[in-house]
């Protein structure tokens, strides 16, 4: 398997993508598969967040949480498309980028409902893709790819994980009677932060 050393990488031409220097040398085969899979997962996660936004907004009437999930969907969709650009700049083949079996609707299969369940589901989705990013980063000896993963994906998913964990802790700390009030107050905070994005989902 061909691997690009750090010395070889220094000789490669570079380009800028969102302020990050991108090596124009091609990656090794293992890294190609990692990046393709990550692009798939980012786009799939964006779709899953929209499903969560629809459920929490329409079924539970929480516009703040719906707007949060819509914002997370926008973020992951954008990062997925930027990753496709990165793959193209690295001269990687993307003919098999999209999975033939399509996107699995994991949210639709949920048996439980409610804000806590949806936040826990989002946390698990984010945790899974964060683990995939970390694996790609650790297995790579490609300095350009490692830098891209750190600045565009790793930090983002760490912050999303912290946000979701914080929201869950706030809602679950009180009694059952208090949880409804806490959930309402958190929803109002999210609505003030992100605005009412339900029209972006239901329009």
Summarize the entry for a quick read.
The protein has 203 residues and is mostly helical. The chain is built from seven helices and two strands; from the N terminus they run H-E-E-H-H-H-H-H-H.
Count of separate DSSP helical elements: 7
Seen as an oligomer or otherwise, the chain set is single chain
Radius of gyration: 19 Å
CATH architecture: Up-down Bundle
Major sheet characteristics: 2 strands, antiparallel
Q: Structurally, how many domains make up the residues?
A: 1
The CATH superfamily is identified as: Ferritin, core subunit, four-helix bundle
Helicity level: over 70%
Keywords: Iron, Iron storage, Metal-binding, Oxidoreductase
Binding site for Fe cation: 42
Family: Belongs to the ferritin family.
Catalytic activity: 4 Fe(2+) + O2 + 4 H(+) = 4 Fe(3+) + 2 H2O
């Amino acid at each position: 398997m061909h691997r690009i050393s750090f010395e070889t990488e220094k000789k490669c031409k570079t380009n800028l993508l969102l302020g990050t220097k991108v090596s124009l040398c091609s990656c090794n085969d293992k890294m190609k598969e990692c990046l393709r899979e990550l692009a798939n997962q980012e786009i799939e996660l964006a779709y899953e967040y929209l499903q969560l936004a629809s459920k929490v907004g329409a079924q539970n009437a929480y516009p703040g949480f719906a707007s949060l999930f819509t914002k997370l969907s926008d973020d992951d969709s954008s990062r997925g498309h930027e990753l496709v650009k990165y793959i193209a700049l690295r001269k990687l083949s993307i003919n098999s980028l999209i999975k033939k079996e399509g996107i699995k609707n994991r949210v639709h299969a949920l048996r439980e409902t409610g804000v806590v369940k949806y936040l826990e589901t989002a946390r698990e989705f984010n945790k899974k893709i964060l683990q995939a990013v970390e694996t790609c980063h650790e297995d790579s000896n490609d300095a350009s790819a490692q830098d891209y993963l750190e600045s565009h994906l790793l930090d983002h998913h760490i912050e999303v994980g912290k946000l979701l964990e914080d929201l869950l802790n706030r809602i679950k700390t009180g009694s059952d009677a208090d949880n409804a009030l806490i959930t309402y107050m958190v929803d109002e905070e999210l609505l003030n932060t992100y605005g009412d994005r339900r029209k972006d989902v239901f329009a």
